[in-house]
Specification:
Length: about 240
């Protein structure tokens, strides 16, 4: 990161907010926010697909794969994302599997999020009344058709609050990406603090940009939950 003409001396306690510093580095935070959102939502999308696949395996009671899914969920949920990132970024190259930092971020977030999404799907599927499945079979639907048209739509509606909470949780977890030298929001804030000692301004910008990312997700999630509830899905 290039130094500008900003004063690099530590600010005294109680000093006024340095608005020149803030206006100078807003574009840098904007770029970091774009990278954070790109990696975050890519990882979340893969996590949703992975979680759905895991729940289908469990629902269909596929013998060996069910145990693999159970081990994966326990391993993923009980290890920190930071450790998972270190293993992917620094450990896998030892056996010839190399990834760049962005791919590592997506993979790490997907690995962690897949287990949480699988559990969200599981809670939704278990809440669907058994008579729904029996009725679908009596109408001649196959198991795959029953899952696709009867079980999953209701399960998703029931577990929508858990999905929204997981999405927000995973977006916040992107703050550890700085550990693998990704120029995300946290990396940018720590870099500026180290260069210029403008701790208050750097952290204020960090908070503002995370709010700009997370608040719309929270609002849209609340709207989705209300619409599904009013539509009567899962009841």
């Amino acid at each position: 990161m290039q130094k500008s003409g900003i004063n690099t001396k530590p600010n005294g306690r109680g000093a006024d907010m340095d608005w020149e510093f803030i206006s100078t580095y807003i574009p840098l935070y904007r770029e970091a926010a774009v990278l954070t959102v790109k990696i975050g939502f890519a990882g979340i999308l893969v996590a949703i697909l992975l979680g759905l696949l895991c729940e289908i395996i469990v629902y269909c009671r596929i013998p060996v794969l069910r145990r693999v899914v159970a081990v994966y969920i326990e391993l993923s949920r009980n290890t920190p994302l930071l450790i998972q990132l270190f293993f992917i970024y620094y450990g896998l190259p030892k056996i010839g599997i190399r990834t760049d930092a962005q791919a590592c971020g997506v993979a790490g977030l997907a690995f962690l999020g897949g287990s949480y999404m699988a559990e969200a799907f599981r809670s939704g599927v278990e809440a669907v009344d058994a008579i729904q499945e029996e009725s679908a079979y009596s109408l001649g639907l196959s198991k795959i058709q029953t899952i696709r048209y009867v079980i999953l739509p209701q399960a998703f509606a029931i577990s929508a609050p858990a999905f929204v909470a997981n999405v927000i949780f995973l977006l916040k977890e992107t703050s550890v990406f700085s550990a693998i030298s990704l120029m995300d929001l946290m990396f940018t804030a720590k870099d500026l603090i180290g260069l210029y000692y403008n701790t208050t301004e750097s952290l204020a910008l960090l908070v503002v940009f995370y709010l700009l990312i997370l608040l719309p997700v929270s609002v849209l999630g609340s709207v989705l939950e209300r619409r599904l509830r009013y539509a009567g899905f899962g009841t």
